[in-house]
Amino acid sequence: MTTDANSSASPPGLRESKKQQTRRLISDVATGLFLSQGFEQTTIADIAAAARVAKKTVTNYFPRKEDLALDHQDAFIASLAGTLVGRRPGTSALAALRGAFVEAAEAANPVAGFSGPAFAGMIADSPTLSARLRDLHDLREAALADALADATGTPRGDITPRTAAALLGAVHRTLFQRIQELTLAGEDNARISAVVTAEADAAFGLLEPSLADYAPA
Amino acid sequence: MTTDANSSASPPGLRESKKQQTRRLISDVATGLFLSQGFEQTTIADIAAAARVAKKTVTNYFPRKEDLALDHQDAFIASLAGTLVGRRPGTSALAALRGAFVEAAEAANPVAGFSGPAFAGMIADSPTLSARLRDLHDLREAALADALADATGTPRGDITPRTAAALLGAVHRTLFQRIQELTLAGEDNARISAVVTAEADAAFGLLEPSLADYAPA
DNA sequence: ACATAAAAATGCTACGGATGTAAGATTGCC
DNA sequence: GGCAATCTTACATCCGTAGCATTTTTATGT
Prior knowledge:
Protein name (chains A, B): TetR family transcriptional regulator
Largest interface: A-B, 26 and 26 residues
Structural class of chain A: mainly alpha
Oligomer: homodimer
Keywords (chains A, B): DNA-binding, Transcription, Transcription regulation
Radius of gyration of chain A: 20 Å
Shape of chain A: globular
Region (Disordered) (chains A, B): 1-21
Number of strands of chain A: 0
Organism (chains A, B): Streptomyces globisporus
GO molecular function (chains A, B): DNA-binding transcription factor activity; transcription cis-regulatory region binding
Largest sheet of chain A: none
Distance between the termini of chain A: 29 Å
CATH class of the largest domain in chain A: Mainly Alpha
Helix content of chain A: over 70%
CATH architecture of the largest domain in chain A: Orthogonal Bundle
Strand content of chain A: under 5%
């Protein structure tokens, strides 16, 4: 995510500083345009013009247009695997992921899907963004599969951790979509939290008989 | 999928006949080019030139390029829901879908993922096609969710059938990807069938404690 | 059988995203 | 201060997608 220059003990440096500045500028201008006039309706030329930079500079920082809208991708992808790795002793994978989701839902955490009506709408009526979001869910599941394989001492790629990751990822994805739906329906976060917490109980509960004893810490 | 003209008792008709003829011609030429030189490397202009038609005619029959490569989309989308609806009395949703997959795996059915090395390779190194395939998996899961809601007398969109569909779809998708992997690895269909049948046992077996009694017929 | 309407194929134009290249400007380092 | 690296910029091209006017083919009605 962050640049390597930061880790090598050097002070930010003017060049690196300016880079991140223009990167931030482009990203901010882009999200502003996206939210105000929609993702598909906004061209890269629009963004470049509004940010007073060349088109190539935009596509240089953000190779794909979707990257301009969906930020914190790495955090999202790593979230499930991170929850698993950081789970407290005595908790199974299911319990850890279940607890983390409920916690995120009660806090209306954006990573769980609480992105606000404008953002949810932007994604909803853009096939490109929806597809990219599916990609992220898949990558997140793959990362979880590897983490589960490591945690259970199973070779990566084995069918059992992969299936378990697919099941756990499926529940998370379903609940994520529910939050998006409710957001688009105009519900406020408090109500969404209440509804989704109850639904999470049903969804994770359904998986409990199968995975209660899987990947214990 | 098919045209209405066919259902209104009229003989095929020269116009309809020629339409399907050119459609078939374009599709065949396209898949030939895709398999020989890759999906991304083949342009619509190439296809039009090889089929001796105008570019616009190609995009007229197939609005998106992916549609030229992935055929039988509707059959794929409807397969899980169809299996559920057509299940024999006394079988649960899980048992029906499990049985159908094993059957398809033993028969090396393309719908289960047995598409041959060339086709699998074409999909593997084309982000566009991979994305579209994920779409199809999602649509298939959505269709299954509706079918499960109907079968259990639950309102469509309810969390329980949606979650169940997500779980069952996840297993199917995981096994589908396994078949693709093994195909790309150069294994022959007989060996893939054997491996995947065993893995299906583990994967569906993992889900058994949760869904054994769900949606009985 | 001929004329007319409907429909399909064609050729053209245009736009947007993605990629490549070469020139100019800025920064970092010696 | 000057050199090397890198970023920005301004083209330029390619491809997929879409709209539109024109021509050719098919179907229908007189």
